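Hi V.,

You were right to ask for the full record rather than a summary. Here it is.
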Amino acid sequence: MDYLKEEFEGMEMPTCCQKCEEWFDLHTGVPSKKWFPKSTICENCGELEDDEIDLDEEIADLKETISEAEDSISTAKARLKELKAEGHV
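Predicted structure:
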C-alpha cells in the first residue's frame, strides 16, 4: 500500500484510465468520444483517441471522394457511349 500512497500523493481524485490502466488525477482527464463514451480517460489516451477519430474522418472523406469520382466516370462513359451511338466518336 505504500506504493499506492506515493503514486497518489498530490492527486485529488485518482482515476484509472480505462484504456491504458495508468492512474491520473480526474481533473486532468478528457472525455472519451469513441472508445469509452461517457467516461474519462487520461490525456495521453485522449490524444491517441483524437488521432484515431481524425483518421476515421479522413478515411470516410476519401471513400466519399472515390465514390463521387466513380459516379463521374460512369456518367462520362455513358455519355461517350451515347455519342458513339450517334456516330460522333
